[in-house]
Amino acid sequence: MASSREIGRLSAHFAESPEVFETSPLYRALCPVVAEEPEILDLLVHRRQGQQPSYLLFGAVHYLLLSGVPHPLRRFYPSLMGASAADPADAGPALLDFCRRYQDPVTEVIRTRLVQTNVVRRVVGLRYALWVVGQHCPGPVHLVEVGASAGIHLHVDRYRYAIGEHRFGPADAPLTVDSRWRGDSPPPDLDEVPRIASRTGVDLHPVDVTDVRDRRWLRALVWPEDRDAATLLEAALDSVAADPPTVIAGDAVDVCPRLGRSLPAGEPRVVFHAATRMHVPAVRRAAFDRAIDSIGDDGPLYHVWQEPPSAPHHGLVVAREELAFHGPELEVAVPLLRADGHLRWLAPPLPR
């Protein structure tokens, strides 16, 4: 049983979480229900250090439902029921009954899985960042993603992009990633990006895209209402499965210094991470930052990240809807783009 202090922290987390799930009416409705149930919160004591509680609990429940576990809770999931899903406002009692009835399998998923959400549209921010890097150096560049999971963002140059009315990337790409553009002038030419000389991911537990259970876990982390994102994810996973990039298993604190030394000296490298540092335990974040910076010891480092304000990096406290950028020509990190957390829209940064 968790301590009363830990239960209190978890309760506060769920009480404050509805705004995080702005596009999921189901999860917004369930957060305050979970916040009032110590018995359910106690299941999260088994999570690995640093894992975000609400993403993990809701992902575990969704995973079991996608696996075919029978329960009336299924009625509330658009991912299972489509447009006929029941009113999310009524889902609370069903969730509580599900977690009690399936306590052991829910706990097992919480204990063994990590929050490895693959938001395909975040690759739009990386594509934009590569254009910015191309304004500083002609390339080629070595691409590294920290917290790569299945490595779908490492195929950034192989996707087609629909940014508002504009199209970029190969016409025969396996999928098209779309996002709204909120700038007064057109977006830059995102075909003008440096060639990628190598692509490498780093992850505590790389996802095997040929394993049906691993793919189901990634699907479970997509919010139930977001069927469009789930379709994009399946297409991206198929692309990765056809030509898997290298994803090194291990803690970034240990892996990144070695990885940096393995890249050709003097050649530029681009490091990207999104919603990754937020899962690093607070006591290890300084070491995480140093490890990423070490990739630039032997060559110019361009660093791009999308993390919440609660996990600032390089001294830059970003707004909730910003991507950040730091390069060898910059003394401090700067906002690169404004965008929502799932890159459904993007816009130039506001002047500071």
Structure characteristics:
352 residues, alpha/beta, Rossmann fold, 2 domains, 11-stranded mixed β-sheet, 36% helix
The total count of strands amounts to 11
Mean pLDDT: 92
Q: Please mark out the parts with pLDDT under 50 across 5 or more consecutive residues, or reply none.
A: none
Report the oligomer.
Answer: single chain
In whole angstroms, how far apart are the ends? 48 Å
Largest sheet: 11 strands, mixed
Percent helix, as a range, is 25-40%
Counting structural domains, the number is 2
Percent strand equals 15-25%
Pfam families: DUF2332 (PF10094)
Protein name: DUF2332 domain-containing protein
Would you kindly provide a written description of the structure presented here, covering whatever features stand out?
- This protein has 352 residues and is of the alpha/beta class.
- The chain folds into 2 domains: 4-112; 122-347, Rossmann fold, CATH 3.40.50.
- 36% of the residues lie in helices and 16% in strands.
- It is built from 12 helices and 11 strands.
- The protein has an 11-stranded mixed beta sheet, sandwiched between helices.
- The chain is globular, with a radius of gyration of 20 Å.
- This is DUF2332 domain-containing protein.
Topology, element by element:
Elements: H1 4-16, H2 25-35, H3 38-41, H4 53-66, H5 78-81, H6 92-101, H7 103-112, H8 122-136, E1 141-146, E2 160-163, E3 166-168, E4 176-181, E5 196-203, H9 212-220, H10 227-242, E6 246-249, H11 252-262, E7 269-274, H12 285-294, E8 301-306, E9 322-326, E10 334-339, E11 345-347
Parallel strand pairs: 1-5, 1-7, 2-4, 4-11, 5-6, 7-8
Antiparallel strand pairs: 2-3, 8-9, 9-10, 10-11
Helix pairs in contact: 1-2, 2-6, 4-7, 4-9, 11-12
